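Narrative progress, year one. The postdoctoral researcher (J.K.) led the effort to move from monomer predictions toward full complexes, under supervision of the PI. The following entry was the first complex the group processed end to end, covering 343 residues in total.
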Amino acid sequence: MKGILLVNLGSPDSPTAKDVKPYLDEFLMDERVIDVNRILRNILVRGIILQTRPKKSAKAYAKIWWDEGSPLIVLSERFAQKLRQHTPMPVALGMRYGTMTIKNALQELKDQGVDEVLLVPLYPHYAMSSYETVVVKTMEEQQKHFPEMKLTTLPAFYKNPDYIKALSESIEEGLKDFDYDHILFSYHGIPERHIRKSDPTKFHCKIDGSCCGINSVAHNTCYRHQVYDTTEMVKAYLGLPEEKTSTSFQSRLAGDPWLKPYTDYEFERLAKEGKKRLAVITPAFVSDCLETLEEIAMEGKEQFEEAGGEAYMHIPCLNDNEVWVAVMAKWVNEWEASGVLPV
Ligand SMILES: C=CC1=C(C)c2cc3[nH]c(cc4nc(cc5[nH]c(cc1n2)c(C)c5CCC(=O)O)C(CCC(=O)O)=C4C)c(C)c3C=C
Ligand SMILES: [Fe+2]
Ligand SMILES: [Fe+2]
């Protein structure tokens, strides 16, 4: 029997430093997230970052935590629950980091008689620190614990017309009562080095957009290329004027150069340029989470208003939006019926 495994990033069990620490330890010790050799990663993560970050992150989590738990987990569960109503197949939900493990989710599917799994990384874009690490971890767990299971993976859906339609319509809905001067597409950042590492040709990606018009196999794994494609396709779908939109990258850690422009600098630039009413969308995330609810909806608002902005709105992620659930149901049900995956 076929079944569906949804995988998102994960969250700590509670917004306390005690629970945030082991979660961040697992997250940041992932070689695809902090991609230096193991010894250096140990020093960097355990010797430096984890000395102070858990307390700071726990405070941020406490600001967005819901009675039911972490927004990312609750919203992913709601999405899974709605998807179950649209497909006859068993649907399980696992997280790349934390206690809701991929192994347990695979076990849940096995217990329901599933021997053929479609893995759905809940990320629209390919990055080694998001999509790729989910695929690698799931393959490891499958080979180790469920060798009899067959595993297929949904491709990154950043330019799939059904996804673009669902995302665009959700943005349109979010904007219906907000008269905006500008829409900022803010994506999670990654170190520039990750772009070069993920380029199979080793020479295509120039990290300035000059390469993106040249057809290349590199685009299949280029996060920067893919997010700009999403922005352009949404702009085209909604007929948004060029001068009223821009793209930026949020959530960087100190150290190496990350993809630019940085979202926090953009808040200041846009406000100073007289864009008084700003809408922000965050399409790197399918579910609202710490990075959208705290960094963008709370901190971002403050930064924009301090720089002279007057009105600010964060448009929610797709979460358990009905159109989005129907799109995912269409993709998984087509896979069940004919083995065909969306492109
Ligand atoms: C080297 C560090 C990081 C990389 C690279 C990175 C890439 C990346 N992350 C997401 C999605 C999410 N990240 C979230 C939180 C988060 N991310 C990092 C670091 C990197 N992410 C940290 C340290 C944290 C924890 C919070 C903090 O201390 O600031 C979340 C939110 C999780 C939640 O519980 O709500 C998401 C989602 C993507 C898509 C991505 C690469 C494209
Ligand atoms: Fe992150
Ligand atoms: Fe390119």
